Amino acid sequence: MIENAEQRMQFVFQLRQRGVIDARVLEAMEKIDRGAFVKGLFAERAYEDMPLPIACGQTISQPSVVGLMTQALNVEPRHKVLEIGTGSGYQAAVLSQLARRVYTVDRHKRLVAEAQEVFDQLGLANITALSADGTRGFPEQAPFDRIIVTAAAEDPPGPLLAELKTGGIMVVPVGQSDAVQVLIKVTRTESGFDYEELRQVRFVPLVEGMGAD
Ligand code: SAH
């Protein structure tokens, strides 16, 4: 829980103002303290609605974007969810409150190790964090009810589309890394895929292969 009551209220107020209205999502975000995922100099800004730098030159997403993506995923308690781009671990922690199990992968081993420490600290036992190249999907645990990609791809990666169950939803930012990207919601139907554009976003790029660390 975000300890300071005023910070907590302000945090939830900002989320609502930006369109995060799903009660379960708001409850999860009130419970998971973003401050636990932001280290060093920026820790005091953890409750502001802005992206912040984390290790390996990456960023923890803006809380309202985390909220809107989580809301678009429409996660149910029995779901198995895959996240590509663990980063700080914050998004996975929020998802862990809504799903049965969350698998999260990042190409940087260091980020996975640091996120795992926070998951342990917070007692979030239904998250499995692994270092892997998420552009290849995660065949060991496929198929998934929900997939969230928190780095921008030029197109929704084929291996990930293939690992989505029928009726499943994937949320992914699509576009060039140095430009404004569009957040896309992909729904797998009996006969193919439906695509819906949600809003403009800005994410770090989805990069093929493992990180150098
Ligand atoms: N969801 C994170 C923010 C992610 S930032 C949070 O809540 O903090 C995007 C992350 O995607 C970075 O950590 C980056 O290392 C990771 N990433 C980029 N390309 C990847 C790939 N091919 N496979 C796995 N992770 C990748």
State the CATH topology.
Rossmann fold
Helix content: 25-40%
Summarize the biggest pleated sheet: 7 strands, mixed
Tell me, what is the CATH class?
Alpha Beta
Strand order of the largest sheet: 5-4-3-6-7-8-9
**Uncertain stretches:** none
Number of DSSP helices? 6
Mean pLDDT: 95
Write the H/E string, N to C. HHEEHEHEHEEHEEE
What does the overall shape look like?
Answer: globular
Write the CATH homologous superfamily: Vaccinia Virus protein VP39
Based on secondary structure, the structural category is: alpha/beta
Strand content: 25-35%
Query: From the structure provided, what is the oligomeric state, counting identical versus distinct chains?
Result: single chain
Distance between the termini: 32 Å
Question: Short description, anyone?
Answer:
This protein is α/β, with parallel strands linked by helices and 213 residues long.
What does it look like?
- With 213 residues, the chain is an alpha/beta fold.
- It has a single domain, classed as Vaccinia Virus protein VP39 (Rossmann fold, 3-Layer(aba) Sandwich), CATH 3.40.50.150.
- Helices cover 28% and strands 25% of the residues.
- The chain contains 6 helices and 9 strands.
- The chain has helices at 5-17, 23-31, 63-73, 90-96, 109-122, 158-162; strands at residues 52-53, 59-60, 80-84, 101-106, 127-131, 144-149, 164-174, 181-188, 193-201.
- The strands form 2 sheets. A 7-stranded mixed beta sheet has the order 5-4-3-6-7-8-9. Strands 1-2 form a two-stranded antiparallel ribbon.
- Helix 6 links the parallel strand 6 (144-149) and strand 7 (164-174).
- The longest helix is centred in the middle third of the chain and has 14 residues, at 109-122.
- The termini are far apart.
- The mean pLDDT is 95.
- The structure holds S-adenosyl-L-homocysteine (SAH).
- The site of S-adenosyl-L-homocysteine (SAH) has 24 residues, from strand 2, helix 4 and strand 4.
